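Practice problem 4.
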């Protein structure tokens, strides 16, 4: 939980901003809180609210939110080797509380301490999840209820890019990581003109495939397992 606290510097204003934007889009407080409690995923919440503001159909809103959150499937796949022995009930709450920050903290901790027991890994994830998810929900309520009183010259939208930079930078430790990052950035920029975030949806697997290819070639060169 202590290691998670630094992320609150960006999570809290990010959540407050969502509460403000969602109420300005016409949602009432209950609907805004439903977003944060049930969806619990800032990027897809912002995407959905923006599309609702543009009078997009419910189908487009749902598909776009799922597309943005597709990265959670990638996160889940990388956690399987560490949390495979968890019970069905434990996997349910892990899936619910799996956000960018809880994933980034947990996977780095597991890799640094590979001898942790399953219960220790679950406890670490739970600590990160509580420290991050509860403030997100509370700050969303603050934004939805008193956000209109925040002066316009206080820019809250800095939170999203800083959050992702803080998570990604420490994880770029190998040539495979760097290759995946570089290729996904180039692909995302090249496909930025596609509608509804489709460019990011395509760029992500391209970056993953690049990283896997580089890692496989390095393993073959070093004589290790592919």
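Answer key:
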């Amino acid at each position: 939980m202590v290691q998670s606290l630094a992320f609150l510097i960006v999570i809290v204003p990010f959540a407050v901003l969502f509460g403000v934007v969602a109420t300005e889009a016409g949602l009432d407080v209950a609907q805004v809180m439903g977003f944060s409690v049930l969806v619990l995923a800032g990027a897809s919440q912002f995407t959905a609210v923006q599309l609702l503001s543009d009078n997009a159909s419910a189908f487009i809103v749902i598909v776009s939110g799922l597309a943005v959150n597709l990265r959670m499937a990638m996160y889940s796949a990388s956690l399987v080797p560490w949390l495979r022995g968890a019970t069905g009930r434990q996997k349910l709450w892990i899936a619910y509380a799996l956000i960018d920050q809880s994933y980034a903290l947990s996977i780095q901790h597991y890799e640094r301490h590979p001898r942790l027991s399953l219960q220790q890994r679950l406890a670490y994830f739970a600590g990160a999840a509580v420290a991050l998810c509860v403030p997100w929900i509370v700050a969303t309520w603050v934004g939805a209820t008193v956000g209109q009183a925040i002066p316009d010259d206080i820019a809250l939208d800095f939170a999203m890019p800083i959050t992702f930079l803080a998570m990604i930078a420490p994880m770029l430790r190998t040539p495979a990581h760097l290759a995946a990052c570089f290729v996904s950035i180039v692909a995302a920029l090249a496909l930025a003109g596609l509608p509804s975030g489709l460019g990011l949806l395509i760029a992500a697997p391209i970056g993953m495939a690049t990283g896997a290819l580089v890692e496989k070639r390095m393993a073959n060169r070093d004589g290790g397992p592919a």
